[in-house]
Amino acid sequence: MRPDNAVETAPGAAARRRIPRTADLRRLGRAALLGPGGRAGRLPDAIEHIAKVHRDRHPGADLAILRKAYVLAESSHRGQMRKSGEPYITHPLAVTLILAELGAETTTLTASLLHDTVEDTDVTLDQVRDEFGEEIRFLVDGVTKLEKVDYGAAAEPETFRKMLVATGNDVRVMSIKLADRLHNMRTLGVMRPEKQARIAKVTRDVLIPLAERLGVQALKTELEDLVFAILHPEDYLHTTELILEHAAVPDPLAAVAEDVRKVLREAGISSEVEVRPRHVVSVHRVRLKRGGAQPGGSDFGRVLIQVAEDADCYAVLGELHTCFTPVIAEFKDFIAAPKFNLYQSLHTAIRDGDGRIAEILIRTRQMHHAAEAGVIALGNPYATAATADCADGEEGERADPTRPGWLARLLDWQREAPDPDFFWSTLRDELAQDREITVFSADGGTVGLPDGATCTDAAYALHGEGAHACVGVRVNGRLAPLGTLLRDGDTVQLLMTDATDGDGYGPSPEWLEHARTPAARIAIARWLEAHPAPAAEDEPAAPAVRAAAMTARRAAEPLADTDPPGAAVRMARCCTPVPPDGITGFPIRGGTVAVHRSQCPVAARMAASGRARAAVHWRSDAPATGHRATLYAEALGRPRLLADLTEVIATEGVAIVYAAVEPPQEHRVRHTYTVELPDPGALPALMRAMRAVPGVYDVYRAQEPVAAAQP
Questions:
Q1: Mind giving me the DSSP string for 393-411?
Q2: Considering 120, 400, 430, 698, which one is annotated as catalytic?
Q3: Most confidently modeled of 387-401, 455-469, 636-650?
Q4: Which of 118, 159, 165 is nearest to 137 (CA)?
Q5: I need a labelling partner for 84 at 20 to 30 A (CA). Which of 218, 251, 326, 654 fits?
Q6: Which of 18-32, 377-391, 604-618, 626-640 has the lowest mean pLDDT?
Q7: Which of 8, 45, 48, 119 is catalytic?
Q8: Which DSSP symbol is given to 583?
Q9: Would residue 419 show up in a list of annotated catalytic residues for this protein?
Q10: How far apart are CA 665 and CA 685, in angstroms?
Q11: Catalytic residue status for 119
Q12: What is the pLDDT of residues 79-104, one digit of tens each?
């Protein structure tokens, strides 16, 4: 950050701190004032602690480049002071220490030491490249671009868009920015209250959600507490008082943790068990969840169990559920189905013999590091890419390591969104989501979606723009509307058509109402913009219906006869029998005999009521045309469905006497067709052709029970 943005420590920071601050930055400042110092080849005193922390995580790290970066940064910033009176070099030192504590690799730490040199001093990017190489120049340039974006106006959509582009599709740029913001939030005390509030709101609205998405929980939780202290000082003070009161009495979780240690020792499972305190905002949320009631002893922390291997996690879970009473509703398996931000852990809750309930987190040591540091725990996520990729500066060459590529998707969204406001509205919805569900595809794969996602979101997550061809979906084996809300663990089978955009298939405006994810909303909006809907959805189908109706020929003579002959015959409209259907007859008014199919429910009711039957049979000399039947087509509503069905009917050489479409019910629609067949044997082929129309899942005769739905 610029020197005029530098500030001093906010009150109460020590109580909120999650990342260890074992170095005295004022001592480092004094060391910095003395210059690099030390004997030739020896590390400057100011970065000795950073080097020690870094070597603990990366024993083989080359510290020469850190020394070189510090010498350049110290000489460039010499004479610049922060508002707190400290030398400005203490800021890049503090940011680098934060990243070192989280396990960042050497390249990230080097760029962190230099992150303000190009912005605030005479050092140029060309100098950085000549001295440190293209990769570090790339990172410093990305952070510098972030500094130039006035993203303090968080309500402006275009500023956040620029911020994303400035990251250059490298998560390490964002990691440095988050650490930079954390140090400035720690030292916000000398700012005017209104400026503190403005910075805190931006941090809350933009940077904290980004830290959550990148999995950097250690940064996220401390930022939350610092923002909470500024924006809600009374609630913050009350909550910290509750935490201090709890700390003054014996912790009930300590006894639970000791019982857990004993159980695991007896089971022969090597583990580390500790009570992990909740941070201030977490305790406040628990209090709100309880309606403002005083949090209980177990609400101030959770028991964390760390083991060596994945299998040990499940072994620990088995022992706990055997030796204690489990609270089944609290169990979550984020190892089998990791969260979107690299987080893996088993969550459960147990009740001990004294009735105390404790939340338990079970994870390996590697999972714990990833849970704290997120993408920073990946080291250099681009190490497998060729150096030339970075030199080219092409964003497409840098693979995004986040799961499932969240930062890369943001960059895609900002390029594809129809306008900045649309992008911003969808992004805010995405950032507001802090829970994820996992759904399974028909082939056994998994996809992570935000809580509240629908089948439409699942379609676009699985197929991208190919989801435009989706005409239906089964959820857990049953047909469902595309707007159906999905739950964790649901299985989704998408019904797709092979038709292309040129054939008139694609999403309808209703899909936008279902979509929750930015990827789905942006893709649907782009398609609708490129394919304006006609004035009325059924206009394209109307000419086909009229043409088919005009060619319909009415039967000149009846198809059936009575036995003995002579009575007038009429085909019943309820079941429209055609040869070779089994038929039965019933006399009606005027001496006319109504001919029904033998399976017709109306005929069954007439027989049950005692109505007399009349013997009927198909005429052997029936005309070649005039065989009518009524068909129902059950389908999932979509554009051009009526046109496609009437086209198929006409292609089969069948005339439409009558057609009707019922109002959609939950995106399902039923079409009724009375058709005139050239030959009775044409009916089965016609029904098969209608079932093959995309979106149609069943076709059946009038009064025929609905068969099992077919895709």
A1: T-GGGS---STT-HHHHHH
A2: 120
A3: 455-469
A4: 118
A5: 218
A6: 18-32
A7: 119
A8: E
A9: no
A10: 28
A11: yes
A12: 888 877 788 889 999 999 999 999 99
